[in-house]
């Protein structure tokens, strides 16, 4: 298994029509978001305008979770409200508008793949990981993976790749606060 530890100053930042976006992870690494030559992309964005239009991404699905604040997304006739830590899923090909300002967390993945995004909380401290995964730290924490301990600061992340056997992840903090976001895409 390969584990890469990323810190906030290693991420790629850019702007979009509604605010700023930070690319946290792109797979494959030689892929290109602008050219749409990637399998999946993990990012965090600020929605700074009260009303904004999302970038069209035909051929991709999207999972979006507000980290701070809430947002109302409209895709055609369907409208959903997402509050902090709620996950919404939608087709990247659908024209999507948002109402509300927030900081969000995103997984964009090819329609031929399966994507998953969920919170990791300390009171459920042991987790079994069987596939390549990404962990994004939203509050300082310590994570034990097999025999190695990683001390993560806010906005740090770990990419776990080349997983060939079941791996145990233990969140060492014992409070009930949300510490990590778990993402996988296969």
UniProtKB/TrEMBL annotation:
<protein>
    <recommendedName>
        <fullName>HutD-family protein</fullName>
    </recommendedName>
</protein>
<dbReference type="InterPro" id="IPR011051">
    <property type="entry name" value="RmlC_Cupin_sf"/>
</dbReference>
<dbReference type="Pfam" id="PF05962">
    <property type="entry name" value="HutD"/>
</dbReference>
<dbReference type="InterPro" id="IPR014710">
    <property type="entry name" value="RmlC-like_jellyroll"/>
</dbReference>
<dbReference type="InterPro" id="IPR010282">
    <property type="entry name" value="Uncharacterised_HutD/Ves"/>
</dbReference>
């Amino acid at each position: 298994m390969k584990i890469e530890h990323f810190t906030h100053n290693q991420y790629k930042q850019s702007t979009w029509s509604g605010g700023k976006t930070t690319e946290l992870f792109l797979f494959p690494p030689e892929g290109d978001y602008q050219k749409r030559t990637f399998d999946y992309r993990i990012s965090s964005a600020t929605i700074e305008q009260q009303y904004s239009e999302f970038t069209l991404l035909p051929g991709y699905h999207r999972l979006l979770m507000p980290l701070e604040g809430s947002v109302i997304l409209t895709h055609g006739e369907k409208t959903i409200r997402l509050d902090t830590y709620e996950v919404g899923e939608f087709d990247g090909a659908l024209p999507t508008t948002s109402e509300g300002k927030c900081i969000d967390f995103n997984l964009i993945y090819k329609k031929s793949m399966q994507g998953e995004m969920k919170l990791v909380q300390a009171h459920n401290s042991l987790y079994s990981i069987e596939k390549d995964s990404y962990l994004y730290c939203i509050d300082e924490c310590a994570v034990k993976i097999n025999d190695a301990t990683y001390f993560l600061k806010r906005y740090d992340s770990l990419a776990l790749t080349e997983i060939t056997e079941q791996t145990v992840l233990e969140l060492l903090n014992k409070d009930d606060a949300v510490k990590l976001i778990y993402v996988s895409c296969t």
